[in-house]
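USER: My hope is that you can spare some time for a protein that puzzles me. I am handing you a single protein, as its sequence and its fold in token form. Walk me, if you will, through where the backbone shape changes along the chain. The protein I mean follows directly.
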Amino acid sequence: MDMTTAPGEDARPILSLRNINMTFGGVRALKNVSFEVMPGEVHCLAGENGSGKSTLIKVITGVYRPAAGAEIVFDGAAVSSMTPGIAQSLGIQVIWQDLALFPEMTVAENIAFQTLSGARPRFVRYPAIRKIAEDALARLGVTLDVDRPLKDFAIAQRQIVAIARALVGEARIVFMDEPTASLTQSETDHLLAIVHTLSASGVAVVFVSHRLAEVLEISSRLTVLRDGALVGVYPVEGMTQSRITELMTGRTFDQSVRAHDISRNPVVLSVQGLSRPGEFRDISFELRRGETLGITGLLGSGRTELALTLFGMRQPAAGTITLEGKAVRFASNRQAIAAGVAYLSEDRLALGLNQPQSIADNLVMASLNRILSGRLISPTKKRALVSRWIADLGVKIGQQEDAISTLSGGNQQRVAIAKWLATDPKVLILDSPTVGVDVGARAGIFEIVARLAEAGLAIILISDEVPEVYFNADRVLHMEKGRMAGWHDPRATTLKDIEAAVYA
């Protein structure tokens, strides 16, 4: 195990944990974990899904009580029994990935919520609430209309509201769980600037992110967990993404460019002059058999809108779509699926899968016609179809009847991909397939993509993370403000050049 001295050798940690153990149903979720954070430090907590990150945070915030022998020290004072109330009073705040905000309430009400709650009823003083919210936002250097309902704002602004609420709670240490998972690059840059502002003001930030480039940019140290155990604490200086990946997973991954020459392969999909007013204009490209075509660009570039049009969920105002030499004009996604076009949504939780339903039901929902016996679903055919794809994509499950919500993010995404592969598509559109998926699971997903392309499937890979398309696509289309801004061949250019073009 590697351990390094925290910044300021003589400084006292704001938070220190020793010998943290947690067991659920006979399974040890945390194994003798030690962890500490210095005042004003930006510290990354890294690990794959299931490594124990969330469990550790819940121990720190008093949601879980660790086994006997654990030590929790806050600002030099031992905490014998941490509870959520004690954690909040100490200034420990958590911003979970779902933010836990109230969309129907105003920005001011969300930010000042903790000042409104309590054991006794009290009158609500809106001028005071507004002042609290404006002061908190001012500390972050942000201006928002505090009287508007939160639901009117994009996810990036809601993240800021959650941070402002933490400041109202007199935060001394803030845990951020995947804060950039749903943000574009420009929004991410703004959020990271706010993290720097918090750090400069003396607030410690523990940053949890699967985006390793952000970890390297924002953190001074990182603590790595694997299978509930501490791997080590490392300085970020001199660290690389591949090294972090190795520490998190215990494995090495190939980061070489996979692009190959597909120019002689037959054209499967041809798009000419495709346009939708206000979304994209004059888009033309060809997609060949066995090709992975990467599409990247910032928010508003029209990537998802283009994908939805190819999938029949939106109608083009101009241009043509040709599938295997035949002009098509899909009136619905049903028609697109029947023709052999499949679309994996970027929003797995809301649109890609039905969380309360079983793994089996989710996997077959787009291919029910393949498991019918007469007019009824055949349980035998259904189980066979599910078993085939679960095995083929290496999905780790308990029982097919288990709810899809019981699976990790990476395994859920494999089921979502299997759902569309079960339709036997000619074209597979993957829209941000690794959102909310840890680094080890990401590598597995891209191995699947490469294998599908080698088998002849034509794939469109959409991502706002340039490295994903650079390392995994044969060609890269850069979209900007609804237009085609350029083409890139990963074999003939560098990652830095493409990132400069996209993020300029």
Q: What stands out?
A: The radius of gyration is 24 Å.
